[in-house]
Design a protein that fits this description.
single chain, alpha+beta, Penicillin-binding protein 2a (Domain 2), Beta-lactamase, 23 helices
Length: about 625
């Protein structure tokens, strides 16, 4: 019996120890949770039960170089959200129909934005952005008919100059799932508005600012618990941007090009500042926020004239006779061709087993280097380029690179195209054939596989105007504080390339380009009395009979003690059925207006009478 009692006592003692130990461990664990790690668990509970709503930051405004009137600003607007689980059972279908009518959206679109998988969620779903105050007021007045519907501030962009500046400034839109995957770690979220093109895209992180947050507590079904329990993080507005664009010159360039497919670049060669950048056809980004915005965007995307394409930097063309500026520079610098030596142009040249015909069928007669560029004689430059007694392809390519061809200009806009500078190595690699003499003759007059963008062409002329220096072209002039207007950062000129070519060579090329205007191919159209112009025409083949691309690349003033006053103007008009040789004519209008201080209308009246009719002609 005593043995039984001892066993019973031992068991009781063991159970007591286990119980006391368990209670002690539990007490220690509770002490750790409530006292030692209480703050941590409280924060975790808060995070699990809290939901955040974005307070959008005001996006920075965009100004031209005068910084007086914004080209882009924000318009107060709203986004309408729906929390589907807050809608009484059986009423969601009718509610979606009423929302579609009030928000001017097709019912199918509303159903797509509020899919069935969200119907049991208390988390708000955005039904539409860009909603005006009048619509929100209607929803507020009829709240009983729209259970679960809420609204919040969501400003939209207003583009004051919606014409040719659309390609420069670009537009914004809601971030896509694919974009979010790339940008999530840089502070973007599902509610972010993102720059899609142009300056809006290039400087999105400067313009967007930092969104604020509003935190609220919810239960397990996402229902709000306490109306007054909110935590707010104030948003930080984005910086304002001042562009190098001069809106007066931009408008003049737009009017001079008219409705012809093509582009205009106006550049300040002494700094690389872009004063105007025009591309036609264009688009109106304000319409993306209209009720038919989706259809408008789809129509633009399908348009065969590619209105979204910024032709100044995203289109490339054969440079045609403008490339003869490169050969002239090479010939003078290499001293491979005496400046007084003449070549007789009979209208054609035999080379190998082919006959190459000059653009002037009857020929130009005897020409020296200065006259060869002025008259843009193909035979002269073919003679200059031939492998056996001329420059040869290697030296031509070397000087083309000196002018920046085959490389990006680095302009601060997305998706710049580089063009193509063909070489014997490139042809063998891509075409699997050898370079022949005919290829050299083609490249000598800017044809064949050689292509450049209008912006690259502007840099070519800037190199000549500056006597051997190219500055990186840029559109950003400075950033400013949106409240005080104080300058945060100002862009300084950046040398893109310094040439090894002598000053004497550049002086000769400048004189030769002046000769193009005074006694050459451009003399009949570039007749502005406002300023002395130096330039070069170019007419490139397209493979279609009686259709040619028209180039004109120029700078002015030709002579000046103030290089900061100089501008480069490059006009490029794509081939059309109505051949007008419009590029030099458009440049003449632009240069006259810039240096006379006249408006475009005054310029039309001051120059040849036929300009007024031609400038407003509708091109099909």
């Amino acid at each position: 019996m005593q043995n039984g009692e001892r066993r019973l006592r031992r068991r009781f003692f063991a159970l007591t120890v286990i119980f006391v130990g368990g209670v002690g461990l539990l007490a220690l664990y509770l002490f750790s949770m409530q006292i030692v790690r209480g703050g941590e668990f409280k924060q975790r509970a808060k995070e699990v039960s809290s939901r955040e709503a974005v307070i959008p930051a005001q996006r920075g405004e965009v100004f031209d170089r005068s910084a007086d009137i914004p080209l882009v600003f924000n318009v107060d607007s709203f986004a309408v959200d729906l929390s589907p689980a807050e809608v009484p059972a059986g009423q969601l279908a009718g509610l979606l129909e009423r929302l579609a009518a009030v928000l001017s959206l097709p019912l199918e679109e509303v159903e797509r934005r509020v899919p069935e998988k969200t119907w049991k969620s208390y988390q708000p779903v955005e039904v539409r952005g860009g909603v005006p105050l009048a619509t929100v007021s209607y929803l507020a007045e009829h709240r009983e008919r729209f259970p679960g519907v809420t609204w919040r501030d969501k400003p939209v962009r207003n583009y004051l100059e919606a014409g040719s500046l659309a390609h420069v400034i670009g537009y914004v839109g809601d971030i896509t799932r694919e974009e979010l995957q790339v940008l999530y770690n840089r502070g973007y979220d599902v509610a972010s508005v993102l720059g899609k093109s142009g300056i809006e895209r290039q400087y999105d992180e400067v313009l967007r600012g930092r969104d604020g947050k509003r935190y609220r507590r919810v239960d397990v079904q996402e229902r709000r618990l306490e109306a007054n329990d909110e935590e707010v993080v104030t948003p930080t507005p984005g910086l304002d941007i001042v562009l190098t664009i001069d809106r007066r010159i931009q408008k003049i360039a737009e009017q001079a090009l008219g409705n012809r497919r093509g582009s205009v670049v106006v550049l300040r060669p002494s700094t690389g500042e872009v004063l105007a950048l025009v591309s036609y056809p264009s688009f109106d980004p304000n319409r993306f926020f209209d009720t038919d915005g989706g259809a408008y965007f789809t129509g633009l995307a399908a348009d065969p004239s590619f209105p979204f394409l910024n032709r100044a930097i995203q289109s490339v063309y054969p440079p045609a006779s403008t490339f003869k500026m490169v050969l002239t520079t090479a010939a003078v610098e290499e001293r491979s061709f005496p400046l007084t030596k003449t070549v007789r142009c009979t209208g054609k040249i035999d080379y190998g087993d082919r006959t190459f015909n000059c653009w002037k069928k009857e020929g130009h007669g005897y020409l020296d280097l200065m006259g060869g560029l002025a008259q843009s004689c193909d035979v002269f430059f073919w003679t200059l380029a031939r492998e056996e007694d001329g420059l040869g392809v290697e030296r031509i390519v070397s000087y083309a690179r000196e002018f920046g061809l085959g490389a990006a200009t680095g302009i601060d806009l997305p998706e710049e195209r580089v063009g193509l500078l063909p070489t014997p190595e490139w042809k063998e690699k891509t075409r699997h054939t050898k370079w022949v003499g005919g290829d050299t003759l083609n490249i000598a007059i800017g044809q064949g596989d050689l292509t450049v963008s209008p912006m690259q062409m502007a840099n070519m002329v800037a190199l000549i105007a500056n006597g051997g220096t190219i500055y990186k072209p840029h559109l950003l002039k400075e950033t400013r504080d949106p409240v005080s207007g104080a300058v945060i950062e100002r862009v300084q000129p950046e040398v893109l390339h310094s040439s090894r070519v002598s000053k004497e060579t550049w002086a000769f090329v400048q004189e030769a380009m002046r000769g193009v205007i005074t006694k050459g191919t451009a003399a009949v159209v570039v007749d502005t009395p406002a300023v002395e112009v130096a330039g070069k025409t170019g007419t490139s083949e397209t493979g279609v009979e009686k259709q040619w691309h028209s180039w004109f690349a120029a700078y002015a003033p030709f002579k000046t003690d103030k290089p900061e006053d100089r501008v480069v103007v490059v006009t490029m008009v794509e081939a059309s059925e109505n051949w007008e040789w419009w590029a030099p004519k458009a440049a003449n209008l632009i240069l006259h207006a810039i240096f006379s201080g006249m408006s475009f209308e005054e310029t039309l009246a001051a120059l040849k009478p036929w300009y007024a009719e031609a400038a407003t002609r509708r091109i099909e």
